[in-house]
């Protein structure tokens, strides 16, 4: 059984492995609720025209959230805030937060107003394949409701960045739970009060954004940062953050632009293609959030601290720790998604309006995505090494190269493989991104691998083979007709398969001599 040390060893230090365990637990709760939410939504709306319209409408503010809130902004803001915390007075740090809040609110209000007013143009540009009047008009109406979410969630992420920099990781990690609760409540109880019914999901998004922001404010108050935002165009630190954000926006946009282009391609394919890719992407978000986002959240402020202190040895050692832990957890997740793809889709989504055909098509997309899962997570760790050094240009250039490669793969694969080709192109482009980032970290001498990597990867490889073989054998000896079972039966069998996979993987690692203590790491708070 895994035994983690106390979260905080004393008032000045923290055990990163224990912090990650707690943060991942919060994220796991959010993802589980997210799957319940998707199961409820799939049960109520299926994968038809109305759901396609909602996916298109929600994808754009979600895209902007990832670019501004969780991408470009946090990459530029957190290193500067960490520097201020270490080298400036509390008053100067508080002033920085007020000025950044003022600038962020100003920009987001303008973006939100443009999005609401120009909704028809936005839908036409991002999903021109929705050319029938019903789906197009519905997507426009939904976009006008959900677009203010970008304002709410960006401010929520801004607050979360402050809390993370001050080692308050659990609170921001819990906030996505509130959005999922909002979805579930609206889908289960409030759908009859909306016409058309799909509009309930639009208002669920808006309500969730309000809850996410409001929940974090008491903790911001405790840190002394809950002050009125101030707009100051002359603040040098704010201008420095804005300058850093420009290339960072371009870099963060690359992956999101790929999603938009995939949506455009998918909107010209068979009805349901947009939804199939959406549900597959949602399954990919479980390991991405539980492992990738959690690790990146911990690494960026701590790497920024080492960069500010010019502690290159500790900087490289922390990156090495993050990469080892990432591969230990993400590789079995990728294999698990590939081998247990259809059981996962069937258990979570295959009810009522969501047919066996929908489940099979979603499974195919998931299988293609899983090829690139490690490469989709690794850049979150690798790019943190550049962002902590306040270098956003290098990962931006690499992201643009990756985007170009992804679109080339799209053009090659979509004609024969349809939506599966789009997913596979995304996976291949992710590998280009990850390998180039790793190469540049080595070339710039920001990262030097510590001894023992070959033995480490060999152990993981053997454990993966044992796990995959065991899962295939179990499914062969105990074939399951997933469509004929009730939901709780499916969940029970799936849980048994997942438990078997976890047992085989970690038992094999243990037999090969690996121990949890190898990944213990202590950092200053």
Automatic annotation (TrEMBL):
One Gene Ontology term, aspect cellular component: plasma membrane
Localization per record: Cell inner membrane; Cell membrane
Transmembrane segments: 40-58, 103-126, 146-166, 173-194, 200-221, 259-280, 286-304, 325-351, 363-386, 398-417, 423-444, 456-478, 490-512
GO molecular function, one term: lipid-linked peptidoglycan transporter activity
Entry annotated with the keyword Cell inner membrane: yes
Signal peptide residue numbers: none
Domain of life: Bacteria
Membrane topology per record: Multi-pass membrane protein
Protein family membership: Belongs to the MurJ/MviN family.
Role, per record: Involved in peptidoglycan biosynthesis. Transports lipid-linked peptidoglycan precursors from the inner to the outer leaflet of the cytoplasmic membrane.
NCBIfam families: murJ_mviN
Protein's recorded name: Probable lipid II flippase MurJ
Protein species of origin: Kingella denitrificans ATCC 33394
Name of the encoding gene: mviN
């Amino acid at each position: 059984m895994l035994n983690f040390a106390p979260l905080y060893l004393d008032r000045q230090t923290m055990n990163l492995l224990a912090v990650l365990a707690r943060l991942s637990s919060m994220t796991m709760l959010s993802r589980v609720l997210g799957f319940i939410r998707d199961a409820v939504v799939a049960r109520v709306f299926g994968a038809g025209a109305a759901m396609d319209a909602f996916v298109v409408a929600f994808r754009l503010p979600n895209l902007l959230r990832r670019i501004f809130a969780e991408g470009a902004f946090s990459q530029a803001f957190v290193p500067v805030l960490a520097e201020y915390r270490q080298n400036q007075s509390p008053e100067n740090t508080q002033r920085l937060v007020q000025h950044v809040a003022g600038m962020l609110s100003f920009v987001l209000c303008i973006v939100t107003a443009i999005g609401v007013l120009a909704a028809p143009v936005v839908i036409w540009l991002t999903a021109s394949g929705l050319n029938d009047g019903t789906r197009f008009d519905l997507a426009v109406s939904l976009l006008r409701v959900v677009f203010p979410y970008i304002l709410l969630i960006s401010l929520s992420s801004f607050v979360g960045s402050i809390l993370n920099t001050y080692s308050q990781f659990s609170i921001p990690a819990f906030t996505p739970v509130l959005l999922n609760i909002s979805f579930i409540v609206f889908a289960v109880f409030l759908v009859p009060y909306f016409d058309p019914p799909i509009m309930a999901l639009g208002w669920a998004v808006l309500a969730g954004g309000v809850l996410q922001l409001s929940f974090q404010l008491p903790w911001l108050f405790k840190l002394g940062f809950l002050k009125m935002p101030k707009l100051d165009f002359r603040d040098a630190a704010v201008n420095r953050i804005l300058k850093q954000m420009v290339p960072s926006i371009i870099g963060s946009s690359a992956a999101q632009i790929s999603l938009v282009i995939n949506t455009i391609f998918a909107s010209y394919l068979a009805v349901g293609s947009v939804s199939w890719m959406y549900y597959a992407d949602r399954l990919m978000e479980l390991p991405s959030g539980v492992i990738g986002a959690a690790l990146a959240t911990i690494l960026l402020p701590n790497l920024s601290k080492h960069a500010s202190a010019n502690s290159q040895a500790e900087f490289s050692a922390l990156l090495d720790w993050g990469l080892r832990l990432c591969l230990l957890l993400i590789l079995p997740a990728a294999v698990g998604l590939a081998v247990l793809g259809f059981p996962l889709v069937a258990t979570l989504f295959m009810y009522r309006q969501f047919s066996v055909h929908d489940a099979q098509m979603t499974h195919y997309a998931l299988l293609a995505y899983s090829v690139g899962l490690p490469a989709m997570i690794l850049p979150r760790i690798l790019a943190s090494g550049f962002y902590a050094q306040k270098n956003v240009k290098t990962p931006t250039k690499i992201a643009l190269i990756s985007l170009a490669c992804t679109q080339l793969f799209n053009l090659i694969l979509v004609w024969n493989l349809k939506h599966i080709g789009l997913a596979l192109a995304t996976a291949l482009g992710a590998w280009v991104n990850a390998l180039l980032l790793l190469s540049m970290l080595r070339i710039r001498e920001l990262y030097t691998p510590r001894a023992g990597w070959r033995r480490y990867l060999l152990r993981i490889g053997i454990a993966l083979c044992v796990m995959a073989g065991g899962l295939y054998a179990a499914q062969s000896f105990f074939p399951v007709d997933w469509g004929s079972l009730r939901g709780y039966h499916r969940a029970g069998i799936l849980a048994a398969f997942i438990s078997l996979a976890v047992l085989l993987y970690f038992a094999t690692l243990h037999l090969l001599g690996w121990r949890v203590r190898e990944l213990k790491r202590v950092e200053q708070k």
